Amino acid sequence: MPIQSTPNIWHNGELIPWEKANIHVMSHVVHYGSSVFEGIRCYTQGEGRGATAGVFRLREHMQRFLDSARIYRMDLPYTLEQLEAAVVEVVEANGVVPCYIRPVAFRGYGEIGVNPLKSPVEVYVANFPWGKYVPGTAGADVCVSSWNRLAPNTMPSLAKAGANYMNSQLIRMEAEVNGYSEGIALDTNGYLSEGSGENLFLVRGGTLYTSPLANSVLNGITRDSILVLARQLGIPIVEQALPREMLYICDEAFFTGTAVEVTHLRSVDRILVGDGTMGPVTRALHDAYFAVLSGQQPDRFHWLTPVKVREAVAA
Ligand SMILES: Cc1ncc(COP(=O)(O)O)c(C=O)c1O
């Protein structure tokens, strides 16, 4: 889907026009992948005049942004509060909600060697309208990828770094070329890891299973939200290394992520998951998640940071 531009992008502390947000081809990031980023959604609660809008778990996303930068020794000259304010500023200035928000920090134009420390750090925050990522509300038909996820102590999985997404691109391209909407990667020990841009949950016998952080997964903020909601709903949770074959014998499976939200899997490697429809545990978690985002339920976890918009459309 082509990116729909908005009027402004936040750059190093000020708003600049979308079309002026350019970098030099000799910037460090272009050659060595030296970037970290976030993906955040802003949702609307209600419709028309009385509607409000809120950024979902802004603090946690910007903390992960700072953490990713820290892992790569990238000093961001902004505090957590300043980064949160930057997001609110650009969303309010552009007035487009619901929307997807993309903060990115990278090594810019400086030196050409691998060592990034002499290249300046640039920080941008953009936002734009963006719909569902995995196509189809009937569930996703996915495969197990022939590519493994990042091995421990190679590329840090807990950093949301641009370079990690070269691995994600291999997983995603292979899946789509072979007629699937997404691929699930195993870690280098053969245990379930995650999709190219999503965490994975399975349900068997009413228990919710997900891989721990040690299986090369991103510390997903939607993953955490689902774990919080599952605890509230009294759903038993097992966070442990999971063998691949759990995919073929589970009752339910779903992906979580800012982009995919909660998307159930209809089949894995052409084997139906349960009867292929969204199962009861997935449904309960999906509905609880959307009830908070849409304002049907009070925001009891303080997950929404309000933004002022002139008019909001239904999410
Ligand atoms: C590799 C990967 N795993 C998991 C996720 C889900 O993370 P979150 O729920 O924070 O969007 C993402 C998306 O950011 C991702 O890129």
How does this model look, in words?
The protein is of the alpha+beta class and 315 residues long. Helices cover 25% and strands 29% of the residues. It contains seven helices and 17 strands. The strands form two sheets. Strands 8, 9, 10, 11, 12, 13, 14, 15 and 16 form a nine-stranded mixed β-sheet that branches. Strands 1, 2, 3, 4, 5, 6, 7 and 17 form an eight-stranded antiparallel β-sheet that branches. A hairpin with a 2-residue loop joins strand 11 and strand 12 (207-210). Helix 2 crosses helix 3. It is globular, with a radius of gyration of 20 Å. The chain starts with 7 loop residues before the first strand and ends in an 8-residue tail after the last strand. The structure holds pyridoxal-5'-phosphate. Pyridoxal-5'-phosphate (PLP) is lined by residues 39, 168, 194, 197-199, 218, 220-223, 256-258.
